Amino acid sequence: MTTGGWIFMLVSVGFVVSLVTYCYYRVLTAPKEIVEPPDALGM
Amino acid sequence: MTTSKQQWGSRVGVILAVSGSAVGLGNFLRFPGQAAANGGGSFMIPYFIALLCLGIPIGWAEWTMGRYGGRKGLHSAPAVLGVIGRGPIARYLGTAGVLIPLVVYFYYVLVESWCLAYFWQYLRGGLGIDTAAPIADQAAASTSFYYDFIGYEFDGVMFGGGLHESVVFWAITFTINVFFVYRGLSKGIESFCRWAMPLMALCALFVLVRVLTLGTPDPTQPEQNVVNGLGAMWNPDLEALARPQTWLAAAGQIFFSLSVGFGVIINYSSYLRRKDDVVLSGLTASSTNELFEVGFGGLITIPAAFIFLGASGAIAAAQAGSFGLGFQTLPVVFAHMPAGNLIGGIWFLMLFLAAITSSLSMLQPVMAFFEESLGVGRKVSTTVVTLIGLAGSLFVIWFSKGSAALGTLDFWVGTLLIYVLAGVQIICFGWVFGVDRGLKEAHQGAQMRIPRIFRFIIKYVAPLYLIVIFIGFCWKDLPGAVRGILESESAVPMYSLLLILAVATLIVVVTAIGARRWHAAGYDLDGLRLPEDEQPESVPPTARREGARA
Q1: What Å distances lie between residue B90 and B82, B205, B219, B410, B422, CA to CA?
Q2: B183 with B193: CB under 8 angstroms?
Q3: Among residues B48, B209, B277, B430, which one has the fewest Cβ atoms lying within 10 Å of its Cβ?
Q4: What is the dihedral sign for C-alpha B266, B267, B273, B276?
Q5: DSSP state, B528?
């Protein structure tokens, strides 16, 4: 495997692993949605 | 009018369902062949450019359009595109968003059943390939098993002389699909994807670790080792970047891999609420697909083929096409691999899971279409879609010789029509609905902002990119496909086209019926009004509704 091969492989795989990690981190650490109670007072 | 009561159970659930739709056989079988045959590592330059300029922006557009249509009470591609594209032209072009998943399902469920059958075969001890024989004989044995199994030599062979084994696996696979889709979005598709996707990742990780720890299995051939196997896949050939074919292949791979232009994402996202995020969710689903494609697909198949079959075997594997690599070359590789039957079984289980999460996503938009257009319930739509699916799939099974029916349906609907639908979608979103309005809509409830550069990409780059690759595709492949129909001794390609035409006619007629019903029920079918939850607060909801129907 050439140096170029290593570079392309590591950068490509590293990019997709970083991207998916970042995305799932953002999704899973997002604040839980607060369900608004019915507006009983009409306010 | 029957209104849909379907909804997603959780945000992760919908992300996994969309990811499951995107991750399919192409991630593991098509991508490595395309990359290795088009410049190795350097293929990734046009590949990532296409991801940024085509895959991710069209995906965001689909997520946004679907959610917008859902807020107006519409869930099928024709109805949603009619709203976004403001009129009947977009609505009828949107029928492709039903035709594509339905017709692709005809053959995809069959290929899916092959994966299940191969998994079962490995549990029973493998394909019986004699590793002491010359490699050519092993490849011939593998090919013979595959051809016999799928009835490649003769039409109708799978129904001749009793029930063919492949038909049994097809029936099982078909039933599983119908069962989960009938259970609905949350209890069926989402529940299934919530455990199938992690299991698929585990299977892929297991096979990947096995391949990367193979070392040099045959000491008499020290050059056939893991590092050189990775080199066979990743060593860059920078001259390939000067060839248009490389750019076409990369764009095509991104395009088909992400399931954009398929009609699925529009339907799935139509069940989201106004404040549900679509930007981060869309990016997460795309990145999940990329993980399976680049992270697993790019490290497993070609290196494994190189390690056991040598450089010539790896080249042959890259050129064998998806089915050739998956069902003919890899069984030879597994036969040589330590614990090969176990690895082969896990590999085909993974392929089966990848395929079924995709096929489930093909049925759901079609069922939603019939429910919405005809005002029928889940039971009736399931029955209708099952009957059409059975007829179409049996057609593909019967005309199995040379995979003629499968190949024809895949070319005209599973490839060409996807370009058309994606083009319609991005033009409706960027030009008719308006890119600024579209991005504003996308940012409702979004957890991240779409970078400003994507305004330019969505409006100009993506449509132009699509047109260029579509012209390139037509230039390269269309004449051969037309000749294949006109000059073929077999009538099967023509029958296949007639089948497509019949299904398309049915969908257009049902759309026309649906349009009349939607108009009569007061739906804003041509996208002329703001959604109810965006109209001025001063107008009472009842007045808005009455005004809408006036």
Answers
A1: 5, 43, 62, 24, 12
A2: no
A3: B209
A4: negative
A5: -
Cα B323 to Cα B41: distance, rounded to the nearest angstrom: 23
Q: Do B447 and A6 touch (CB under 8 A)?
A: no
Question: Measured between alpha carbons, how far is B78 from B63 in angstroms, rounded to an integer?
Answer: 15
Cβ separation A1–B447 shorter than 8 A: no
Residue B341's Cβ-count burial label (10 Å; 0-12, 13-18, 19+) is middle
This model of the complex carries an ipTM of 0.89
Q: Which of A1, A17, A25 to mutate to test the interface with B (most CBs of B within 10 A)?
A: A1
Interface contact flag, A4 B227, Cβ < 8 Å: no
Residue B314, token pair as written in the block: 């790896």
| A8 → closest Cβ in B44, B227, B293 | B44
CB contact under 8 A, B230 and A1: yes
**How far A39 CA lies from chain B's nearest CA (Å)?**
15
Number of Cβ pairs closer than 8 Å across A and B?
Answer: 83
* Interface residue A16 vs chain B (CB under 8 A): yes
Phi, psi of B39 (to 5 degrees): 105, 5
In tens digits, chain B (550 residues) has pLDDT values of 445 578 898 999 999 999 999 999 999 999 999 999 999 999 999 999 999 999 999 999 999 999 999 999 999 999 999 999 999 999 999 999 999 999 999 999 999 999 999 999 999 998 989 999 998 899 999 999 999 999 998 888 777 766 788 899 999 999 999 999 999 999 999 999 999 999 999 999 999 999 999 999 888 999 999 999 999 999 999 999 999 999 989 998 998 899 888 899 999 999 999 889 999 999 999 999 999 999 999 999 999 999 999 999 899 888 888 899 999 999 999 999 999 999 999 999 999 999 999 999 999 999 999 999 999 999 999 999 999 999 999 999 999 999 999 999 999 999 999 999 999 999 999 999 999 999 999 999 999 999 999 999 999 999 999 999 999 999 999 999 999 889 988 999 999 999 999 999 999 999 999 999 999 998 888 888 777 666 665 444 444 444 444 3
- C-alpha B99/C-alpha B319 separation (Å) is 30
CA distance B326 to chain A (A): 22
Triad A13, A19, A24: Cα angle to 5° = 125
Q: Which of B42, B231, B294 sits opposite A13 (nearest CB)?
A: B294
**A12 and B CB contact within 8 Å:** yes
- Residue B234 to residues B248, B289, B340: CA-CA distances in angstroms? 19, 19, 24
| Cα separation values, B165 from B120, B151, B168, Å | 11, 11, 5
CA atoms of B475 and B154, how far apart (whole Å): 32
